Amino acid sequence: QVQVVESGGGLVQPGESLRLSCAASGSIFTIMGWYRQAPGKQRELVARIDSGGSIDYGDSVKGRFTISSDNAKNTAYLQMNSLKSEDTAVYYCSAHAWIGQDYWGQGTQVTVSS
């Protein structure tokens, strides 16, 4: 059974940092990524990394967020620095399995507010 579990969300002030973790299990995953959805907005790509180390970032987080992964542990991390109020959203981890199926976690809330 495939499981995708996020952790690390919370409430921080503008300018602070937060680190999210995502652990996937039950399959072999070739791409792991982070997406976010703010109230009233569509889900958008934050960052994704494949098993070869290729990385994509959403335009709004370039230079502030860093994605990394541990392939042996099927774990991905998202280091978020210089957080802004507009980064407030539910952050979802996505794990793309080698058979072509995408799996999603339940999401973790990130709130940036003074």
The tally of helices reads 0
| Low-confidence spans | none
Provide the gyration radius in Å: 13 Å
Strand count, sense and barrel status of the largest sheet are: 7 strands, mixed
Q: Which structural class matches the secondary elements?
A: mainly beta
What string gives the helices and strands in order? Answer: EEEEEEEEEEE
Q: Helical residue percent?
A: under 10%
Shape: globular
Mean pLDDT: 96
Compute the number of strand runs: 11
Q: How much of the residues is beta strand, in percent?
A: over 45%
Distance between the termini: 40 Å
Notes on the protein architecture:
With 114 residues, this protein is an all-beta fold. It is 0% helix and 56% strand. Strands 2, 4, 5, 6, 9, 10 and 11 form a 7-stranded mixed β-sheet that branches. The protein has a 4-stranded antiparallel β-sheet with strand order 1-3-8-7, with no helix packed on it.
Features:
114 residues, mainly beta, seven-stranded mixed beta sheet, four-stranded antiparallel beta sheet
What is this structure's SSE topology?
Elements: E1 3-7, E2 10-12, E3 18-25, E4 29-37, E5 44-50, E6 55-57, E7 65-70, E8 75-80, E9 89-97, E10 102-104, E11 108-112
Parallel strand pairs: 2-11
Antiparallel strand pairs: 1-3, 3-8, 4-5, 4-9, 5-6, 7-8, 9-10, 9-11
